[in-house]
Structures
1.
Amino acid sequence: MAAMNQSQNLPAETGELTHLNAAGEAQMVDVSAKPETSREARAQAILSTTDEVLNLLTQGGLPKGDALAVARVAGIMAAKKTSELIPLCHPLALSKASVDFELAADSITVVATVRTRGVTGVEMEALTSASVAALTLYDMIKAVDKAAEIGQVKLLSKSGGKSGDFRAAGYPAEGDAR
């Protein structure tokens, strides 16, 4: 095995925020010079399923129990563990992680909200939370509907930080009816 060149672990000389070091290799971005700000992100995942599953879900009749409660906890846990799941993500002290569900005629929309006060955003935590909650729902319903599909995993909104605020097209502003 070749000896590792220590200079390969140094950030790019330009001082810009980058996932590449001076040798062009992947690294965790050095955010130590960034100021702390309040940050929030919301993300969604949509699980398409059958009327039968939705009826069992609302009546508490799924074979594995309360799928929404289990998926909520899984999503919150995933937000807290994002840096262990997604390479190069910073470990963050989260001040809030929540998962909510919107049931429709043929789908369950998972909406994850994550907050922190820190030097980097929580978009990946919100996306990971929504994704893992949807995967957990699939696991909980697959005995009834193996054909269920997870899709439309996307960032709905983010606030705080240097890059400013973001709101997905069609996603209502805070306080507007959803």
Note: The mean pLDDT is 85.
2.
Amino acid sequence: MVYAIVRAGGRQEKVSVGDLVTLDRVPGEAGSSFKLPALLLVDGDKVTSAAQDLAKVTVTAEIVENLRGPKIVIQKFKNKTGYKKRQGHRSELTKVKITGIK
């Protein structure tokens, strides 16, 4: 089984060909493709982690759709002072499909 650990949106994701992964927003429209930097490559029993070998590895992904994450409600409250604050947040996300690891 071939899989790679890639850097995506400040996090690391384990991906293999055909996986659907949700990442932080990636610039581009649905259907466009881009490359992700590989940090580790596992090909059966062979593990590649050297920087000069990983420079030759390309992990390509195709954008499936741009979407927004669930609403997160942030509430602050201090007792006996009348202080209340409510704030919401929705993350901008992109769903991508991994098309190749070479």
Note: The longest strand covers residues 59-68.
3.
Amino acid sequence: MITAPKLRYNSRMTRSKVGANDVDTLTDAVLTASRLLVAVSARSLAAFEETLTLPQFRMLVVLDSRGAMKLSSLAELLDVNPSTVTRMVDRLVTTGMVARQPNPATRREVETELTDEGRRVVRGVTRRRRVAIEKIVGSMPVDERRGLVDALTAFTEAGGEPPADLGWI
């Protein structure tokens, strides 16, 4: 069972002092929230029957949300070296979660795409994450949830993350 961590400081007092231009305090809050989200993600992966690392799962999510792509494009989106992406793809090909195929437009390039097994894994892990996040959000006071959607949407748009299409959940 996942519960919200107990804070050791008065978070209401900290929030009331934060102005919209206080980048350091906002950055600290996002870093703290990201630790929680990474922990939720790690637990969701650990609970799944597949053995995946967070970076491998991130690759699956990128392929799921953006479709087939060249290794160089995938490396750029993941902000890693092309050799790292090649090794990750090699491992995921052996698990049947991704496949390589010639690019139909050029036939000289190779594209990587998610397989049905990869989609099954993304959906299963995402369902587990959703349940865990729902519990955390549900434990928040209602009046504190109001601005969360707008703030998180603005944050993900600023970071270039496409909206999640979770209609399949």
Note: Residues 26 and 65 are 28 Å apart (CA to CA).
